[in-house]
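Ops channel
N.P.: pipeline sanity check, posting one input/output pair.
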C-alpha cells in the first residue's frame, strides 16, 4: 500500500511512519517545513493549497492526516488553525474523492469530547458527542476535523477512522514534542509509534464507514478511555506502555 502522510516532518509524523516502514508500506511524506528522507518520497507543500494537495494525493492508496498548526501563539486567532487544521483536512478529503482514494485516517484528539461530564468510572467514551472542554481554536479545529471526516465517510462511502490520541510522547526517551522529559505516567500518554501502528491497522482493515479509536498506551487508559475497543477491533496491543514511570491520578489531565 502507498500512503500519504501529512505533517510528516513533525514530532508525531516522524514516529508515526515507523510501523508503516516495518510492514513494508511505501510512503509519500508531505510537510510545509523543509525536510528530507533517505527512504521515502518527500513532497513539500501547503495543505491549505488545494492544487498542491491534489498533486500529493494522486497515486496513493490511503491517507494519514497528521498535520497540525504547532501549539502556541498561532491559536490566539482562527486564521491559521482554520487554514491548516480545518481547510487542509477538507482539501485532503476532497482530493481523495477526486483521485479515488477510499481509505483515510485522521489523527484527532481526546480533547474533542472532554467537554462532556466526566466521572472516575467513565471519562472518555467513543460515542460521546463532540464537545471541546476549553475556549480557543485548537480543540475547536480538532472537533471540526472530525465533523469533516464523518461527513465524507457517510456521503462518499469511504473508510475513515478518527484516532483520538492523548498526550503524544516517545516512550523510549520519555520526551514530548517540546523535548521535555516526563517523569510520571499519565493515563493519556500516547506513544507516537503506537499511534502509527493503529493508523496502519485502520488503513489495512479498510472497513467501509466511519469509526473512532482512542489511542493511548498506558494500562490505565484501558478502563478510563475506550482503548479496549481499539485493541479488540484491530487486534492491537500497545508496545510502549510507559510502565517504567510511576502513575499519577487519572484525573490529572494533561494540556494538549
Amino acid at each position: 500500500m502507498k500512503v500519504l502522510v501529512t505533517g510528516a516532518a513533525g514530532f508525531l509524523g516522524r514516529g508515526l511512519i515507523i510501523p508503516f516502514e516495518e510492514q513494508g508500506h511505501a510512503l509519500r511524506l508531505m510537510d510545509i517545513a523543509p525536510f528530507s528522507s533517505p527512504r521515502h518520497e518527500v513532497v513539500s507543500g501547503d495543505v491549505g493549497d488545494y492544487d498542491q494537495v491534489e498533486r500529493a494525493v494522486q497515486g496513493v492508496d490511503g491517507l494519514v492526516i497528521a498535520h497540525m498548526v504547532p501549539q502556541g501563539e498561532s491559536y490566539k486567532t482562527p486564521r491559521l488553525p482554520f487554514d491548516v487544521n480545518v481547510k487542509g483536512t477538507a482539501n485532503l478529503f476532497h482530493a481523495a474523492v477526486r483521485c479515488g482514494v477510499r481509505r483515510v485516517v485522521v489523527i484527532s484528539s481526546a480533547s474533542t469530547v472532554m467537554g462532556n461530564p466526566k466521572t472516575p468510572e467513565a471519562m472518555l467514551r467513543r460515542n460521546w458527542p463532540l464537545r471541546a472542554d476549553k475556549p480557543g481554536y485548537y480543540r475547536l479545529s480538532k472537533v471540526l476535523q472530525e465533523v469533516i471526516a464523518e461527513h465524507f465517510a457517510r456521503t462518499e462511502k469511504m473508510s475513515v477512522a478518527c484516532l483520538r490520541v492523548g498526550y503524544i510522547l516517545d516512550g523510549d526517551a520519555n520526551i514530548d514534542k517540546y523535548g521535555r522529559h516526563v517523569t510520571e505516567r499519565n493515563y493519556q500518554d500516547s506513544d507516537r509509534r503506537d499511534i502509527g501502528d493503529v493508523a496502519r491497522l485502520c488503513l489495512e482493515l479498510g472497513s467501509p464507514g466511519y469509526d473512532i479509536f482512542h489511542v493511548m498506551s498506558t494500562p490505565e487508559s484501558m478502563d478510563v478511555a475506550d482503548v479496549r475497543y481499539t485493541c479488540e477491533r484491530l487486534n492491537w496491543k500497545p508496545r510502549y506502555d510507559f510502565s517504567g514511570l510511576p502513575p499519577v491520578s487519572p484525573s490529572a489531565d494533561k494540556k494538549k
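N.P.: looks fine end to end. The longest helix spans residues 79-99.
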